[in-house]
């Protein structure tokens, strides 16, 4: 049995074309290992890439899952993009909506869902044995933490969520969605809770909730929007489905003017 977490569908903002070549490489790898894909797990509705969940489901099966906070994200962005039926903001596009504390298995491996909102209101962490997949809530210690200025984001909630992640135990291995390495070190994708507590520049032990909220507010005010925010959200709140084709058999991404 296998699970895929936060799969990526490549997309060109210049041509408007999607590209599933990298996703299909992963599909081939799963097949080469004779694995059955049980879960396609989203940590949140990402703003920096389109989800390839439906590519994996079409090729290998499996259930597409996300935290039940996705309904709030769908409702908020459904209003911004003026989405109409058949789009409905109730999470039905996903096969499973996880509540905080839900458990599931990947084969014989026990897994637990921990709601960790703040970066987005639907963010979750997946505890898998002695590891945890934290989405965008944390970055490597020398880069800090995720922004909280998207609709539904909240720095105080992120601080509280990170404390929940730290409570998983000092030796728990955390898997990152992103890394932004300096020239002094190589790319990394895993780190222990203990290292985060000792060294994270934004939220190491001793930093108070108020200090964190003030820091995030100052930092977020300097950040530009991710280049793929507008197309990514419209696909990701649909569980990786592209928008419904119109009467000319073409799907469209909407660009709200003077809104963000």
Question: What features would you describe in this structure?
Answer:
This protein has a single domain (2-236), classed as 4-Layer Sandwich (Metallo-beta-lactamase, Chain A). Helices cover 27% and strands 19% of the residues. It is built from seven helices and 13 strands. The chain has a six-stranded mixed β-sheet with strand order 8-9-10-11-12-13. Strands 1-4-6-7 form a four-stranded parallel β-sheet, with helices on one face. The chain has a three-stranded antiparallel β-sheet with strand order 3-2-5. The longest helix has 12 residues, at 21-32. The termini are far apart.
Helix and strand arrangement:
Layout: E1 2-5, E2 8-11, E3 18-19, H1 21-32, E4 37-41, E5 50-51, H2 53-60, E6 63-67, H3 70-80, E7 96-98, E8 103-106, E9 109-115, E10 124-128, E11 131-133, H4 155-166, E12 173-175, E13 190-192, H5 193-199, H6 209-220, H7 229-236
Parallel strand pairs: 1-4, 4-6, 6-7, 11-12
Antiparallel strand pairs: 2-3, 2-5, 8-9, 9-10, 10-11, 12-13
Helix pairs in contact: 1-2, 4-6
